[in-house]
Amino acid sequence: MLNTNSEPHLGILLSGLVVGSALGATINVPADYASLQAAIDAAQSGDEIVVAAGQHEAGVTISKAITVRSESGADVTTLLGSGNGPVIILEESESNGGGTLNGFTITNGAGVNGGGLFLAGDEAVVDCTVTNNQALSGGGAFVVGNPVLSQVRFFRNDAEFGGGVFYAPDAGAILDFCDFFGNSAGAGGALYISPRGSLTTYATIGAGTFENNEAEDGGAIYAFMSGLDIVDASFARNYASGRGGSIYHSDGEFSTVSSASIRDGDAAEGGAVYLDGTG
After folding, report:
1. Positive or negative, the Cα torsion across 134, 138, 140, 141?
2. pLDDT tens, 195-234?
3. 279: nearest Cα among 257, 258, 256, 250
4. Phi and psi, residue 258, nearest 5°
5. 16-60: per-residue pLDDT in tens?
């Protein structure tokens, strides 16, 4: 069931999100270690890795409770993939929890599950630009578990399922102030929310913009046997050659769309929203 008449009930503002570390050591790249992976290998839980402006070869895995941040911001600090797998794999450590990635442009990734990012667990990605990546599922990001993405911009990523972000079964990622522009897919130009597994797949989406995304079904969002909660988001000029110019929602869990703007969508069926079997 998709409820579009509820009053706003969700304040996702992530004022408590920790984006830096004040407890561990600070490691500088390239001053202390020439490569990001070498710095990650040397880091301990609670450390902070600070990456200087410039272009850095990535294809790295972060599986520690550390913060990796740019010194000067995403506009001038790029993590460049090899075109063979995700640019960054960020996975939760069983003993120490998830890490944080903050302030990078992430590009040139290509893989099966996740072109730009593969996220597994309770990690945080903050103030990043994810652009020009591709994958079978999740051109920009493939998410498992419950990561938080805040102020992340997804531009021109491509996939068969989820051009911007792919939610794996039972994932519950929060997207807060995230923007999706010009992403494309067979299903879910911006987001693909997978059918539930043993629990439920649920997307929580705060203020953000979905614009000029396209797919066969679900120009912006495709949700099948899953749920979503959208507050204060804006949808404009999304396109589906089949169903759901902005949102395709079929056989889903209880979902809400509140204080959202949906305009100028185009599709063969349901230029704004296509509902099928949702109760």
Report:
1. negative
2. 877 677 788 999 899 999 999 999 999 998 888 989 999 9
3. 250
4. -135, 145
5. 444 444 568 999 999 999 999 999 999 999 999 999 999 999 999
**CA atoms 156, 148, 30, 59: torsion sign:** negative
Sheet holding 2-3, edge to edge: 2-3, 255-258, 227-231, 202-205, 174-176, 148-150, 124-126, 100-102, 67-70, 48-51, 26-29
In terms of Cβ atoms closer than 10 Å to its own Cβ (0-12, 13-18, 19+), residue 46 is middle
Q: Please state, as a whole number, how many other Cβ atoms lie within 10 Å of the Cβ of residue 214.
A: 22
Pull the structure tokens for residue 25: 């050591």
Amino acid identity for residue 69 in this structure: R
Q: State the CB neighbour count (10 A cutoff) for residue 10.
A: 17
Question: What whole-number distance in Å separates Cα of residue 78 and Cα of residue 250?
Answer: 38
Q: Which of 119, 137, 65 is nearest to 128 (CA)?
A: 119
pTM to 2 decimal places:
0.90
Pair of tokens at residue 278: 């949702």
As a whole number of Å, the CA-based R_g of the chain is 18
Q: Any idea what the Cα angle at residue 175 is, between residues 172 and 176, rounded to 5°?
A: 140
Q: What is the residue-wise DSSP string for the chain? A: -EE--PPP------TT---S-SSS-EEEETTT-SSHHHHHHH--TT-EEEE-SEEEE--EEE-SS-EEEESS-GGGEEEE--SSB-SEEEE-BTTTB--EEES-EEE--EEEE-SSEEEEES-EEES-EEES-EEEE-SSEEEEE--EEES-EEES-EEEE-SSEEEPTT---EEES-EEES-EEEE-SSEEEPPP-SS--EEEE-SEEEES-EEEE-SSEEEES-EEEEESEEEES-EEEEE-SSEEEESPPPEEEES-EEES-EEEE-SSEEEES--
